[in-house]
Amino acid sequence: MMDWTDRHCRYFHRVLSRHTLLYTEMVTAPALVRGGALHLLDYSPEEHPVALQLGGSDPGELAEATRMAVDRGYDEVNLNVGCPSDRVQSGTFGAILMKSPDLVAACVEAMQSAAGDVPVTVKCRIGVDDQDPHVVLPDFIARLKAAGITRIQIHARKAWLQGLSPKENRDIPPLDYDLVHRMKAAHPDLHLSINGGIATLDAAMDHLKVMDGVMVGRAAYHQPYDILADADRRVYSVDNPVLTREDAVFAMEDYIGAHVAAGGKLAQVTRHMLGIFAGQPGARRWKRILSDGGHRDGASFDLLREALPPRAA
Ligand SMILES: Cc1cc2nc3c(=O)[nH]c(=O)nc-3n(C[C@H](O)[C@H](O)[C@H](O)COP(=O)(O)O)c2cc1C
């Protein structure tokens, strides 16, 4: 999620779950290919399995960016056809591409040629503006399938490109889970994931009775423990011991130590950990101490020890 997640967030989420697939925030192909912003591809090996999400609409540029991702060992390359922000519309990226399925097909064909064995996937909406999702989504999926795509993540609401802010576009257009479930029934051969408004692991499990996958955005960020800590056991039937919240904090000690020793700020990592005690005693104090102190020069893992709820310190 742009401006929210980064490699530090993914490392922390991986502490909580070994098997869930983690996605990068959208990285635009022009930033990589024309801007040379190669640092955007950096990640830690512990983050696997990790998918790079690309934004763009130029097949050649997306192919080049895909090659860079594959060279760096990403497990999947995903094309964003869901982001509604103005910035992104101006570059013809994201949700507006729902209106150009042939261009999307050309993009993913170019990406697949560059990706070799690494899967190329697409994240999309159910439609944009005045499109009828019941017409547009089936056609869009059929077009992707004809282009060789086998895995799609569907944000189960339209994006309204005029008049709504990106934030409003994540809440105001109504969710249509039923339509997405019907797409799965129509395409047993595709791996289809559902996204949007799924706020608990229980709700994710319900969708998994129908769908192949569930993508969780905001809830995973704000309540990472509640979404991720038991996901390996419940979703993947892997008997990983569930870490306590405190153990998850201490599992970050070496990573944080190395980050700070290399000149990084503590808060760059801990800002993603503020929600670990969400709903628990001491949650507010934890957040306050880390938010107040994490930016200070010299702040180290000791601040997390100080901030831990008392029974765990
Ligand atoms: C701050 C923020 C940034 C986002 N950035 C991206 C992004 O880079 N790529 C993407 O596919 N979706 C992005 N999204 C959308 C989420 O991935 C997700 O589709 C949306 O929030 C609905 O799912 P949720 O209710 O589980 O959060 C972003 C959402 C937020 C809140």
Task: Please tag this protein with its features.
TIM Barrel; seven-stranded parallel sheet; 7 strands; binds flavin mononucleotide; 12% strand; 313 residues; alpha/beta; Four Helix Bundle (Hemerythrin (Met), subunit A)
Please summarize the sheet with the most strands.
7 strands, parallel
Highest CATH level, the class of the largest domain: Alpha Beta
Q: Which descriptor suits the 3D outline?
A: globular
End-to-end Cα distance, whole Å, is 31 Å
CATH topology of the largest domain: TIM Barrel
Give the spatial strand order of the biggest sheet: 1-2-3-4-5-6-7
The unique ligands bound to this protein are: flavin mononucleotide
**CATH architecture grouping of the largest domain:** Alpha-Beta Barrel
Uncertain spans = none
**Count of domains:** 2
Helices and strands, in N-to-C order?
Answer: HEHEHEHHEHEHEHEHHHHHHHH
Tell me the fraction of residues in β-strands, as a range. 5-15%
CATH homologous superfamily annotation of the largest domain: Aldolase class I
Cofactor: FMN
Keywords: Flavoprotein, FMN, NADP, Oxidoreductase, RNA-binding, tRNA processing, tRNA-binding
InterPro entries: Aldolase_TIM, DUS-like_FMN-bd, DUS_fam, DusA, tRNA_hU_synthase_CS
EC number: 1.3.1.91
